[in-house]
């Protein structure tokens, strides 16, 4: 059996982007925001037609004054974009980078507690294969990104305190990454564990590497790998989504219906995250249905099939600015 973890129900696709945002004067100091947490009270209205209970499970709990602790505000996103443009300018080349083939070395770290969570090599290989299909253009409406993921090492760590209830910013996360992280800014470190707070995964953004290289990487629920036990989220798209953040993409619903949205021109604006696979959903005025099939929304794994040409271009630009 590929999954030995004690799989708890994880209805929400909660894609946090780990480490706390650094509100510093220097534009280069922004890291990824903290994690989503599920709430239990239903929202006042469900724009996508999903059931109130399902929608409630997907909404993040509010922080002070009701703010989502995982939210990247318009101001923060604007600062991150300004930093990107400044970095590209420093390179002395065009803002738009060629979509050249890029191989990303992957260090895969399996955290387990005895037999619980001890994924075998076939599960790891299946996840890498899925990433290469997703980023290679397979799937309806998908665009090849130019990124290819090459597994260069897998290790297994038997540590119950790291495995159970891992959360962003925790002592367990810090200890795990300090002990295990390998490579430079262009190496992807991918960790699996039984996550706390009903999380499916989180990631760091690429411009956070300069401030804290040890924290750079992606953490996902072990049961979210292909063939795992996370219902609706067991095809490997949690890692696809989180690596999108690792390559610099925002959620498709960033900034809601307000320009510039997610800073990608060909993803239609979306007022809020999608739930399930609500075909025909249209939450913002103007042309274009909500991009519910995009890997950077919150839809079920079976609903996610595509990156856009604009997202592929943004990932190429950000790779040149931060990870090459």
Which features would summarize this protein structure in a list?
alpha/beta, Collagenase (Catalytic Domain), six-stranded mixed β-sheet, 13% strand, disordered N terminus
Give a quick account of the main beta sheet: strands, pairing sense, barrel closure: 6 strands, mixed
Strand content: 5-15%
Mean pLDDT: 81
Please report the first level of CATH classification, the CATH class.
Alpha Beta
- The rounded distance between the terminal residues' Cα atoms is 38 Å
Radius of gyration: 18 Å
Give the helix proportion (percent range): 10-25%
What's the architecture in CATH terms? 3-Layer(aba) Sandwich
* H-E order: HHEHEHEHEEEHH
Individual helix count: 7
Counting DSSP E segments of at least 2 residues, the number of strands comes to 6
**Structural class by sheet pairing and helices:** alpha/beta
Fourth-level CATH superfamily:
Collagenase (Catalytic Domain)
- Which of globular, elongated, flat, extended, rod-shaped describes the shape? globular
Number of domains: 1
